[in-house]
Backbone:
């Protein structure tokens, strides 16, 4: 952030409007901005606009009947709830993994680091099938768990499990460079000044990595809300119980109900957007608070 | 638009002569796309080889048939959205009706164009249980006992599941009357722990994942599981009554005319009714419509009472009453969650 504002500062005079003039120190703005806007427009905005327009074609009464039916509400609750839970779990355990990967040296560390990226690369269907095979009540992990009454597949906890798997690298890869940059010396400084270990973590480390952690959380959450491929294998897909919203959309499509599908998609779009906006707001506030302090 | 016209023109120019030359000495090879439903992979692999030989012998032309498989509804949707299918071979007539209705790629009376309502084979819905039938499941009535877990796909997305659902409904209506059928279905759906989106998915859940006590399955899928997938691990239970499941076939007129493949595609569908094809059909555990072949394989298929889709007033009515939004399936699920 600091480098960017330093570059923005020495803006020369010109005839361009003020908002453009301030940025002329960087070359090629017009071209790159044009490409950026076109790119985002074609790839992101246009399809999203199509969803909104198509769902508006339904008329408000029909839209509400499809988008807010009890079954759809149950699906939203599951999709957003499971994505939040999974992102929170990843926030905690992802941070722990980052800590270990950055601060310690141990044999097999590079392998462990590579393993973290596996959920990025693995086709989600493969992940879903593998998780189901292992965690179903007949699988090698699922069977002993089932004998003590813990069932991890074919119910909502299966959804969370799949999303934890999918979201892990988002948290780890976002927080890792920040923690690595931080260096061990500030922790040592805090310790020599008499801070307890908990205080070092809570008052020195956490504030520094909080923005990155929140970004990782938001990415994992966003990925989880939209995830389809891995979840459908392990969820059980029972309406009202373990049916995620993306599956409901696919189900509507397969009944040739394009409008119904777009109505549910539009609701997911609005809620996702709102939640990401809130997370961004928290981040901005955090940054302002730290800069001011 | 113009690009499409040009592309269409190019395709016709290229493909047109193929059809014209079909009877001549060394015709160019041709390719067909058969868009089919989930469990027919093995069936069409066998039939396609056999048809290609027969076509080559008759015309000298090489024909390759590409296959696409998936949930019947999803497959119909892919054709509506532009998959260049020459023929569709789907799980139920309603899905082909949808192609006629929504994309106008084939005439509304498509089902009258081939014998037996364009259905070259039929099948039914039976139960697959674990070896020795530990839960003692013998008929539809046993499926609603507490503690019995039933695996079936989602009828909203799977053609096979719609046959399952109507078979259960038909039994319940016969046994408990129209009013009692709903109560039976609520209890039945309460016993379902997993809903896969297609028939193959359900078979995997039951066979590989070991979920549930009984799988409601296409008869051909059940035979496949007993004889090939999990030899010695499963038994087939034939209920007292079931539904005559009729998966129809059709030419996709707009596509074959655009690609110039009408002659070979028509021959392909007609071939399904010939003796050699009917033999393959019976070997792959589907019930043949040819009376001679049917007689020859009579021992292979258990005898049971079958009612038809006409009991429900045909597919259009059945779809509206049971599987459309707010239909009986939705109502029953809403009731079953309480």
Residues:
């Amino acid at each position: 952030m600091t480098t960017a504002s330093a570059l923005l500062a020495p803006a020369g005079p010109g005839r361009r409007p003020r908002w453009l003039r301030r940025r002329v120190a960087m070359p090629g703005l017009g071209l790159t901005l044009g490409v950026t806007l076109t790119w985002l427009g074609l790839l992101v905005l246009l399809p999203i606009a199509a969803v909104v327009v198509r769902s508006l074609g339904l008329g408000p009464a029909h839209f509400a009947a499809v988008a807010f039916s009890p079954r759809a509400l149950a699906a939203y609750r599951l999709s957003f709830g499971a994505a939040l839970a999974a992102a929170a779990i990843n926030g905690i355990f992802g941070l722990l993994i980052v800590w270990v990967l950055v601060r310690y040296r141990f044999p097999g560390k590079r392998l462990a680091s590579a393993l973290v990226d596996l959920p990025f690369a693995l086709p989600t269907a493969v992940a879903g099938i593998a998780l189901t095979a292992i965690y179903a009540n007949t699988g090698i992990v699922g069977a002993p768990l089932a004998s003590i009454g813990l069932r991890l597949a074919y119910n909502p906890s299966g959804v969370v499990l799949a999303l934890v798997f999918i979201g892990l690298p988002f948290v780890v890869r976002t927080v890792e460079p920040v923690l690595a940059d931080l260096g061990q010396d500030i922790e040592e400084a805090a310790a020599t000044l008499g801070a307890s270990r908990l205080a070092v973590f809570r008052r020195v480390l956490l504030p520094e990595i909080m923005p990155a952690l929140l970004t990782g959380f938001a990415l994992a959450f966003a990925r989880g809300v939209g995830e389809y491929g891995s979840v459908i294998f392990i969820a059980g897909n029972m309406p009202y119980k373990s049916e995620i919203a993306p599956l409901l959309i696919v189900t509507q499509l397969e009944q040739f109900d394009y409008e119904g599908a777009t109505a549910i998609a539009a609701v997911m779009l609005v809620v996702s957007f709102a939640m990401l906006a809130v997370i961004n707001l928290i981040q901005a506030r955090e940054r302002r608070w730290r800069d001011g302090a | 638009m113009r690009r499409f016209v040009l592309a269409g023109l190019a395709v016709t120019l290229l493909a047109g002569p193929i059809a014209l030359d079909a009877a001549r000495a060394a015709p160019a090879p041709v390719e067909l796309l058969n868009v089919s439903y989930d469990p027919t992979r093995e069936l069409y692999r066998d039939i396609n080889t056999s048809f290609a030989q027969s076509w080559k012998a008759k015309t000298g032309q090489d024909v390759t048939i590409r296959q696409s498989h998936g949930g019947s509804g999803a497959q119909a949707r892919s054709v509506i959205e532009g998959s260049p299918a020459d023929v569709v071979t789907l799980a139920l007539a309603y899905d082909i009706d949808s192609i006629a209705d929504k994309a106008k790629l084939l005439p509304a009376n498509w089902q009258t164009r081939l014998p037996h309502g364009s259905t070259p084979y039929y099948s039914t819905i039976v139960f697959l249980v674990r070896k020795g039938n530990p839960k003692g499941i013998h008929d539809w009535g046993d499926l609603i006992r507490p503690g019995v877990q039933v695996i079936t796909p989602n009828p909203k997305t799977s053609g096979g599941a719609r046959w399952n659902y109507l078979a259960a409904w038909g039994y319940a209506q016969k046994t408990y009357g129209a009013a009692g059928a709903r109560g039976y279905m609520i209890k039945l759906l309460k016993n379902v722990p997993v809903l896969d989106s297609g028939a193959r998915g359900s078979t995997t859940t039951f066979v590989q994942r070991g979920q549930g006590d009984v799988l409601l399955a296409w008869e051909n899928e059940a035979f496949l599981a007993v004889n090939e997938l999990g030899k010695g691990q499963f038994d087939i239970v034939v209920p007292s009554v079931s539904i005559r499941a009729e998966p129809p076939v059709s030419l996709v007129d707009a596509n074959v005319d655009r690609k110039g493949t009408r002659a070979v595609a028509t021959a392909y569908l007609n071939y399904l009714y010939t003796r050699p094809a009917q033999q393959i059909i019976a070997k792959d555990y589907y019930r043949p419509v040819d009376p001679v072949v049917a007689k020859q394989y009579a021992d292979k298929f258990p005898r049971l009472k079958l009612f038809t889709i006409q009991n429900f007033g045909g597919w259009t009515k059945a779809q509206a009453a049971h599987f459309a939004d707010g239909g009986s399936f939705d109502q029953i699920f809403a009731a079953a969650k309480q």
